[in-house]
User: Fold this.
Amino acid sequence: MELINQHTKKIMEGCKIRALDAGLSFDDETLEYIVTNRDLIELSPKVMIPTLYDYWVHDVEVLKEKGKYELYPGNPYETVINTRPAISFYNDNNPDWLNVMIFYHVIGHIDFFQNNIFFKHTWDYDFTARALSDKRLIARLRSEKGRFVDYVIEFARSIDNVVGYHSELSMLSNPHKTKKEKRIDYYFDVFLQSEKKVSISDYIKEIEKYNGYKSRFRDAAEESFFSDIEKKHPEFETLFNKYLNKKSSKKIDVLQYLIDHSPFINKEENSWMKPVLEVIRTTSIFFQPQIRTKIMNEGWASYWHEKLFLADDRIKGHEVDFARVNAGVTAMPRVGLNPYALGMRMFYFLEEMGDKGKYSYDFQKIKDANERQEFDAHKGKGQEFIFNIRENFCDFTFINTFLDQDFMTRNKLFVAGKRLNKERMVYEYFVKSKKVNDYRKMIIDVLYHPPYIEIDETKSKNGSLYLNHLFEGKPLVNEYIANTMMGIEYLLGAPVHLETSEVTLSAAGPAAPFLLPGIPVPPPPQPDEAQEQIISWQRVLYTMDKKKLTKKKL
Assistant:
């Protein structure tokens, strides 16, 4: 692995200038390395972070990928990582025109990394430097503690998918407010609406009253306003303080709970485990947004590599070569999902919709298909529209908000079904549905969505830990429960309880599933024709105590 030569660097600096002129925004400093395919195989298990800590699973993955490469040699085009500065890797046999195309794609990724709010927690530090420090820490601990370090890593990695990514993000997205600002928010958002349940007219009067105080007293407005409120509602201050205490109790994930509260880890001889758990947790949180924005990120990069490359005069004579490579990357499959293709086409579609003003209320009222197709308000704000989407959406909100019937019709999309042809004994695919709700559900079902596990401190007694799986229609993978709970019990040094939902057979009617607010009740799986019992969702409680797993129905 070595830095690119000055000739290629000059080409890429030219790409940066064109990208900035087109409206992209990114740090000017970047690093580019030339690598072989075997280098990429060795970096892939470490998510392309060369300084990531060593772990035996990485070695297994390298051996597996080397075996695959011997049978099916491939040629990856590029990889870019979200670091400061951004680092990208290029194959050692790429011609100049291909590097231009690839670098435009890389610039699209860098722009996305550095502007999408779901990556906000990664903006203020260089992860490669932190990863190197973590690697040295774990190497030192291995020399002192031996194989027990790998046990702790393995147990921690079994639950690193349920880290509190969104709670970390919310603290960055909501800047710290003063007590004065919190009192105003509490009065109008909670006290009047939830505690007093005032009518709309009375609520508006209170807003007008507050605005009157602001215009008359200015800086002293809040003090004068709440002085009158406390005369009218003497209980206000007590309720407000109670609200502050309740809000300050931050929900923590399982790994953070173990770091802070595990009696076993907090013993002096086991305190070395804390930094190991911290490394696993922070590493997982760093990579969470990349998993949650795959369609948008690849779509945005593909949109820009096509748009900028076609306008670049350096591609003359390589238009056919570009078309061949680009088609291989962005072709829309009839069966399955290509995130590059879906994301890119959605951004093109949304740009056109923004240019024509098709996200206005006037357009949404139109039901006639021909009128919808011909509608054009000449707004010319398509680029502004997609830049705003790039900044504020993740895959779930992107698909749920913008994947509509017009997009499906334009791209001739459908949900494919698979069935066995018993006469010819082959599987055949067929068009199962062309409805947008079915296609949207198919895409959302394959998106990353780890289980929502919360800690119930009221039921965590005598040092034990009670985990509550808030059921969202998908059961936990049963085969992983025992080993995962054994690892948590080891790190806690006390029994662990897990409440979850499972499919069960019963003579009675379906059990009511425990769901998050607003989540519709999923229909239970349909029984076989010969099945007399009813299949339903049942709450169960797993308990891991002294490496022995038990289960009971609730």
